[in-house]
Amino acid sequence: xxxxxxxxxxxxxxxxxxxxxxxxxxxxxxxxxxxxxxxxxxxxxxxxxxxxxxxxxxxxxxxxxxxxxxxxxxxxxxxxxxxxxxxxxxxxxxxxxxxxxxxxxxxxxxxxxxxxxxxxxxxxxxxxxxxxxxxxxxxxxxxxxxxxxxxxxxxxxxxxxxxxxxxxxxxxxxxxxxxxxxxxxxxxxxxxxxxxxxxxxxxxxxxxxxxx
Length: 212
Description:
single chain, about 210 residues, alpha/beta, Rossmann fold, 6-stranded parallel beta sheet
């Protein structure tokens, strides 16, 4: 059964990468999560400023540990002491040389689908940094836009809300209620059908499940 599953996943990855390239994105693949962080840093030059979007995937692949071994300036707003510093750090990321995060979903026809709370992550993915690297586990690949929407609204968003300790209905029930909570994280929906003008976007697919 493992051999059959590997065959299926390989075919799915190949379809997706071909479609991403057709849509002018760069696409590459690493089979194992343990190799993903090193692969990311082959794409980042020394002394670059590197912005980071909120991502369970980056933690899982050891991105931050790998970053500490390279001469880069990491812009990471997580440990900031105040909301003012937090927002300042996020705005600085629009001027980063490289922006690294994940995508909520990648369709087999080569599109990127993302939902964001404040819009800083999807904003940096589409404009500002010259180079964007999206690290996506094989679990992020979906058949089409309808499946992408279901995945994000009914899986990724409830789990992220729960992870962040937010007071939203989905964080309690695990089901999207299309709420009006002040802490709602599904506020900005962005579909990238082609590579943005003047922004290089690389999708690094990893042959293991990663993130939410």
